[in-house]
Amino acid sequence: MLYEIISGLNNMHKKNLIHCNLHDGNILNHGGRYEGKVYISDFRLCQPVSLFLKKNDIRGVIPFMAP
């Protein structure tokens, strides 16, 4: 599963894109634990690298902290 996640991110980076919102909720496993296919979802915040490097904004999900 990890290999497929890394391959997906590598394909995005080769196209000069950054996901900007990658977390476990955006990793989908279809077809079973060992035989299934892994997908990366939720590309709403996906941006070109050049645009991302020009901004100082914080992107993504704020980490959960128990109250």
TrEMBL record:
Residue intervals of the Protein kinase domain: 1-67
InterPro entries the UniProt entry points to: Kinase-like_dom_sf, Prot_kinase_dom
Any GO MF annotation of the entry: ATP binding
Alphabetical list of PROSITE patterns matching this protein: PROTEIN_KINASE_DOM
SUPFAM superfamilies given in the database record: Protein kinase-like (PK-like)
Segments passing through the bilayer: none
Protein name in UniProt: Protein kinase domain-containing protein
UniProt source species: Rhizophagus irregularis (strain DAOM 181602 / DAOM 197198 / MUCL 43194) (Arbuscular mycorrhizal fungus)
